[in-house]
Amino acid sequence: MADLVGINGQRENFKVVGKHNLPGKVSYALASGVAKFGVDYALPGMLHAKFLRSPYANARVLSVDASKAKALPGVVDIVMWDDPDMIALKPPGPFGPTRPWLDNYADQEGIEVAVIVVAEDEDICEEALRLLDVEWEVYPHVVDILKGKEIDAPLARPTDPLFHGKDMFARLVDEPKRGNVSRAITVQGDVDKAMEEAEHVLEYKLVLPTFASHVPNPPASVAQWFDDPYTGPNNLHIEGAVQRRDSVGRMYGVPDHKTFQYGIFQGGKYCDWGMRRSQEITPLLARRTGRPVRCSEKREEAFDFLMNQRYIYMKIGFDKDGLISAIDDYSIADGGIDGNASFGTANDQGYGPYYTMKCLNIRQNMDIVDSNRGKMRLSGQHCPFNWDSGTMAIYLVAEKLGKDPIDIAKLNLHGPDSQEDMRPVRSFDECLDEGRKLMNWSWHASGTKKLPDGRYHGAAFRYQICPRHAFSGYNCKLEFRNGQIVLPTQGPVTGIFAVECNAMVVAEELGVGYDDVVVEFNFRERFTPVGGGSDGSTASAWAMKECANILKKQILEATIEGANNPPPPSFFGPPPPANPFKGFKVEDLDIVDKMIVAKDDPSKSLPLAMATMDHLVATYSGRPPAAIWSLGMGKMLDTMNTAYCEVAVDPETGEVEVLRFGVVADPGLVLRPTSLESQIDQVMFFSQGCQLLEEYVYDERTGVRLNNNMIDYKKPGMLDVAHVDRKFVETRDGNAAYGASGVSHSMANTHMVVIAIHNAIGVWVDPPATPDKILKALGKA
Amino acid sequence: MYTPESTQAAAYQLVNSVTSPMDQFKCSVCSSVFANYDSLRRHYDTEHPHDVAPVVVALHLNGKHCEIVVNPHWTFQRALQYKFGLTGAKHMCDKGVCGSCTVIIDGRSVLSCTTLAVEVAGKTVQTVEGIAADPKWKPLIDAYCKWDAMQCGYCTPGFMVAAKNLLDKNPDPTEQECREALAGNICICGTYPRHAQAILEAAKEIYKGGNA
Fold first, then answer.
1. Optimal mutation site among A19, A20, A25, A32, interface B, most CBs of chain B within 10 A
2. What is the reported pTM?
3. Which among A320, A398, A499, B145 could disulfide-bond with A23, CB atoms 3.0 to 4.6 Å apart, if both were Cys?
4. Which helix (DSSP H) or strand (DSSP E) does residue A196 occupy?
5. Spatial contact of A667 and A640, defined as CB atoms under 8 Å apart
6. Which sign does the torsion angle of CA A86, A89, A90, A93 carry?
7. Does any CB of chain A come closer than 8 Å to the CB of residue B153?
8. How many CB atoms lie within 10 A of CB A209?
9. Is A777 on the interface with B (CB under 8 A)?
């Protein structure tokens, strides 16, 4: 059991943690339509702003004649890229090239470029944009990264040809960029020798699709400047920049205490933490016009990537039992926006699926190709989606040897401490045992099982480590105020129910109910239960557990002080109940069911609400011990998860039905089961969508993406998604509160359904496996 | 704090603060403000003869008679946000695909992003705020919250309206009927299995004793 350094980390009895059906602290606002997101805000007298967007995939604006647009009634301001105000604007984040905040160069179709118009309403903005006389210099584009990789390919970013993706993780090769290509390589062992000595060698090409999963709420902000008798002149009020209020303030030189924001609802994030220009520009426009300004994006303007396209060419050496001894992985990956090869690409080399295996000879070689494909400010999902190269390696070996992939996975998985550790991993074994039972697992070779209705049956399995970071520290604060426990936080609310996990842990430690913990959302507060991966719920809950115990000690001390030195009687209200704890010590007391009680004589008690009238404030800044995952990057293992699926493939129509998903995961300890279950469902539906339905389509000739909308880009709906059976193993081997660990998006996958389809029909189909592709693979179309 | 009571009160306040925002007859071209609709209309005729003048639309919104002056090309979703201050009907797909902007018009679930405001003239409209303000539907809100039938929550009001409309017509739906009734609503967070669970539980509470 982990959580060895935390207070009560070994707690055995839980009254609140682990309970189902405790409503979220803001759920009522969401369900009733009262909650306001950035796009919902409107201020009296406000103006609207719209960017010029590039109709070309790769082009530069040479000049703009805005005279007709300026003459249009209702147009208030037109700002060009070369305006001194615009030149002075600097992006708040570290990602991307050091190009101007608003450039006259557009590296994607639809990207904001060169001009922004401010007018009385959005219609006038759009009319003004149409009246701009823009002179373009159009360059050849790259939307096919295999073509873009060639040395004679046109440059995707001719204005910035030497720019390497700046990434906080990527291990780029120190060599000049070749055309559009930067290179990253990671090598362990002697791959060539091991491959030569292997009994079997397999080669396979894997295509990771580009995947949208755009944020549901279109990005938007509204800003105004105001004077205030307390804080003085030039205060900034901005809505729609939740969690980045301070960084937007810094862009405009506004100190934190003069930057205001009341909205807490951020919408879905899905690892997409990038700010959009619409969320950063409004303060400038409001300052220039002297009025509030709103800027929002249409759905097609914010149909952003979650994952960039990637081709993986895999070569695997293994022995007759299926033990893998050599992995040679060469990838060609879309570099993402602005050449940023962030999480989704080279970083995976550091902690990819291969390091969970005993195999000591691993080479990962990646060409990161600049392209004019996508729009995302902070590029891509990381390990969860790209993990399936390992899933595929295991399946291929199993298929070749006629063995169950679960057995191959067990054979290849290393032990808890290192790749040389041959011991079993408890969490993995327990997940597999339960998984076999849950799925009534009975492996069959591909193309050999038909269902009574004539469709082919296929099954697949995958595993993952439970990656959670604990990179972030947490500035926790709890108050005992007027007899109530108060948890102040700035939020934000993104749907992960993190603050609820915190409230449950606080309730557990303070001997009160979940409803007794009042969560106060206030943008001035520092505590935010976010920090990468599942830190949001589990690691922050660990820190909040420490804080709760500091507050508990303060409450008990104040109670004893009140007994030893009673306060003078109050003329207001009834007299307080007698405090029976004169002469007690803190260690003699506990808080149980909202009562302060003597441990050795529970008949001596005092309602918690009457403990003290002092306003007590406890703070704790810190984080749980580093996770095994973050220390070992897959080379050490503790909490893990497994997933399964069954499909039926109709050989006549090519239709694939996911009969069911199965998930057996080890979150260490389940803190809040209702949302954990829901997030497991979510991740399976993400996976189903990107393997069966979702795909960006480009016009190769123009570089235009053709389906930036929810009609032509199909997300799964209520009737599309499969049933998910779930079971949780609780080893308490995680690093966070009570040995909990994050699971969340680590189960997102690109190939589990695709593998099940192969298991059904014996032919490979790249995602998305649409009926036409299935029929073609079967030689029927 | 968003308690059940405070949120219901907030919804009630939103519904009741909606009157007829015709006190401001504002030109959408130049922002000039007039005392009445006739003056605004004359202003368009003389100053903006090439622009289409706004029109007056009267409707019953969440039980109240309202009139708005609106541009003929405005969608009803846009009118709800900017004319009435009701943002429960969410702008997501803007193409009639996702159901986030669902409202009930004359007893039918309708997508307000593909309905013009002028089409609603003379009709009876219920939005999520109206549902949330009505104590009869509190069990539905309760059940949605109890079962986490939301994550980020952006699409949730659309689901709520479609669920209420289902229960108006069918007080005792099956799970499959719930799924079919909500098939036009997209939740990127994938909360799908939760909705039927919540609706079935709420139906029992709302219609217990057969008091439909």
1. A32
2. 0.95
3. B145
4. helix A191-197
5. no
6. negative
7. yes
8. 20
9. no
Residue with tokens 């309602």: A607
CATH number of B134-210: 1.10.150.120
Percent of chain B with pLDDT over 90: 86
Domain boundaries, chain B: 4-88+116-122, 134-210
Q: Cα separations (Å) of A516 from A16, A519, A682, B100?
A: 11, 9, 30, 33
- Please state, in angstroms and rounded to a whole number, the distance separating the CA atoms of residues A642 and A391: 11
Query: How does pLDDT run across A6-49, given as a tens digit for each residue?
Result: 899 999 999 999 999 999 999 999 999 999 999 999 998 999 99
Instruction: Name the residue in chain A with its Cα closest to that of B176.
Output: A719
Among the partner residues B98, B151, B180, nearest to A678 by beta-carbon distance: B151
pLDDT > 90 in chain A, percent: 72
Inter-chain touch B92–A723, beta carbons under 8 Å: no
User: Radius of gyration of chain B from Cα atoms?
Assistant: 19
Q: Establish if B134 touches chain A: CB-CB under 8 angstroms.
A: no
Separation of alpha carbons A758 and A775, rounded Å = 13
Torsion angle defined by CA atoms of residues A381, A384, A389 and A395, in that order, rounded to the nearest 10 degrees: -150
pLDDT for residue A348: 67
Topology classification of domain A27-35+472-568+577-622 = Aldehyde Oxidoreductase; domain 4 (3.30.365)
The tens digit of pLDDT for each residue in B38-67 reads 999 999 999 999 888 999 999 999 999 999
Q: Do B30 and A73 touch (CB under 8 A)?
A: yes
Chain-centroid distance of CA B88 in Å reads 6
Candidates A314, A318, A355, A388; CA nearest to A188 is A355
Task: Identify which of A637, A661, A641, A645 has the alpha carbon closest to the alpha carbon of residue A730.
Answer: A641
Residue B76 has pLDDT above 80, yes or no: yes
The CATH topology of domain A413-468+628-777 is: Aldehyde Oxidoreductase; domain 4 (3.30.365)
Look at B153 and A493 and tell me if their CB atoms are within 8 Å.
yes
Alpha-carbon dihedral sign for residues A154, A157, A161, A166: negative
Question: What does the pLDDT read at residue A381?
Answer: 46
Distance, in Å, from the CA atom of B32 to the CA atom of B23, rounded to the nearest integer, reads 13
The alpha carbon of A701 is separated from its chain's Cα centroid by a whole number of angstroms, namely: 34
* CB contact B168 to A (< 8 Å): no
- What ipTM, to 2 d.p.? 0.97
Residues 6+ apart with CB under 8 A from B27: B33, B34, B40, B43, B44, B47, B48
Helix, strand, coil content of chain B in percent (nearest 5): 50, 15, 40
Give yes or no for residue A341 having a pLDDT over 50: no
Domain A38-139+215-302 in CATH 3.40.47.40 = no
B31–chain A Cβ distance below 8 A for any pair: yes
> Nearest-CA distance from A717 to chain B in Å?
6
Cβ contact, residue pair A34, B190, below 8 Å: no
CB distance A651 to A761 below 8 Å: yes
CA distance B142 to chain A (A): 8
Radius of gyration of chain A (CA): 29
Mean of the per-residue pLDDT values for chain A? 90
Determine contact: B176 vs chain A, CB below 8 A. Answer: no
> Which amino acid would we find at residue B48?
H
Full DSSP string of B12-28: HHHHHH---GGG-EE-T
Note the pLDDT tens digit of each residue in A561-595: 999 998 887 777 777 788 999 999 999 999 999 99
Work out the minimum CA distance from B149 to partner chain A, whole angstroms.
8
A27/B71 CB distance under 8 A? no
Q: Give the total residue count for chain A.
A: 781
| Chain A interface disruption, residue of B128, B159, B192, most A CBs within 10 A | B192
- Closest residue in B to A723 (Cα) is B193
Q: Give B-chain residues touching A73 at CB under 8 angstroms.
A: 29-30, 48
The answer, yes or no, to whether residue A234 has pLDDT greater than 50, is yes
